[in-house]
Amino acid sequence: MSVLNPVKMQHLDSNQSSIIIEEKGYYTINLKAKASTSWKEESNESLMLRLYVNQVHHQDIILFYGNQSFTYKRLLGEMEPGTYEIEWICESPRNSEAFAEMESYSVEKLEVSERETLAVRFAPKLYGRSVYSSYDNLYTDTPLEMIYFFEEWERGLVIEYHMVFSHEDEGTPAVLLMSKWGRLLDIEYMARIYLNEYNEIDHIEYQGAEHQVKPYKGPFLEGERVILQTATCNGNFTDKITSSYHFSFIPSYEWKVEQEAREVVMQRFPYINHVMAWEAERQLKNYPLAYNRIQNVYQYAYIQSSVWEVELGTPSVDFLVRLKGEEKWQSSSFQHKKFGSFSAAYTGPYNHFSTTICLPEGKTMEDIVELKIALINEKVSMANVKDLKIFAYDENGNLEKYLETAFDENLTVFESEKIVWRKEM
């Protein structure tokens, strides 16, 4: 059902209505709204609408998309038939003069497969970060999407959830985020739910501070959903809840780990690229330290590829482009630059991954005439590299695929570089 109730709300204003659920099932609430805020504007980044169901605080929705009308789709949960009282309260701690325009909201029953039902049933609830302030996520590192994948273990299925944040304030510097991960977004392993043969919880692990895997010891929502809080400024979690705002994300995409990079979310959910760019413009464009300064996310080539037959977690390959009229090659890892033992190249745990190459000012994707792959670790005798896609921001600020080339090449100490694409002239 839909509730068409356009209303303008300022700090602490509220609005009441009701919904009718006619059939038991899992439901989403889809809020269409905009605000006088801007994710690019310091101290006016966003506000949030707090949702109460039958006078109980259910969740908060941060209006990070500013003055553009946007539909925020969140998990309402498993609902029984009946009438429910709905209240929205506007909370704007960053700017008391800001206002939200709630255009409408709808409640939608999820039509999901048995497999998707498991992902929804056990989806973690996330409390917001409160390190720098009570409401960090209203202006930085805001959570955007939850993705998941399935694995098997000896007693049944495992569901692993990952959270996509707009950035990470601490941890890997921005320049290295782009070279190692191909994004400024922070995509973090959140929790692993181990199910038995009856699809009941056996045990749960989550990613704690310092990337330590910890056993979950907290309470459960609705008897089955873990409750975590973003605890650190690099997107790690805790089961000890101290903050006062929280989110209920839908597991929105089943990530196909063996077929694609996690950065597929940048194509599945185009809006996250806008939020990433806005946050970079506000926080990183004029950052005093060079390794954390990103002057223009639109100047990058965003690359997705895969590497095989190597020990994952160690640097192995580099991607390079040559521009028209130039002999110098632009490198994704800055010619395998190191900061102590910390490599600028990809060192993640997955075969499929992303990286970027920053093009010189004034150059565009059209200037690329050759692509090359290179083996960059003398301790690696061979690496198999397969396929490549390049994405770039267009003039409207959307990330679009520029080229795709299929190949299956082995790099060795005897043949450490190979051209994989050449522009037809």
> Could you tell me the number of beta strands?
30
Oligomer: single chain
Rg estimate, integer Å: 23 Å
Distance between the termini: 56 Å
Specify the structural class: mainly beta
Strand content: over 45%
Main β-sheet, spatial strand arrangement: 15-14-13-12-11-20
* Mean pLDDT across every amino acid position: 96
Q: What count of domains describes the coordinates? A: 3
Helix content: under 10%
Give the overall form: globular
Q: How many H/I helices?
A: 4
What about the largest sheet? Answer: 6 strands, mixed
Q: Which stretches of 5+ consecutive residues score pLDDT under 50?
A: none
Your description of this structure?
The protein has 425 residues and is mainly β. The protein folds into three domains: 1-111, Galactose-binding domain-like (Jelly Rolls, Sandwich), CATH 2.60.120.260; 113-283, no CATH class; 296-422, Lipoxygenase-1. 8% of the residues lie in helices and 47% in strands. The protein has a six-stranded mixed sheet with strand order 15-14-13-12-11-20, covered by helices on one side. The model has no long low-confidence stretch (mean pLDDT 96).
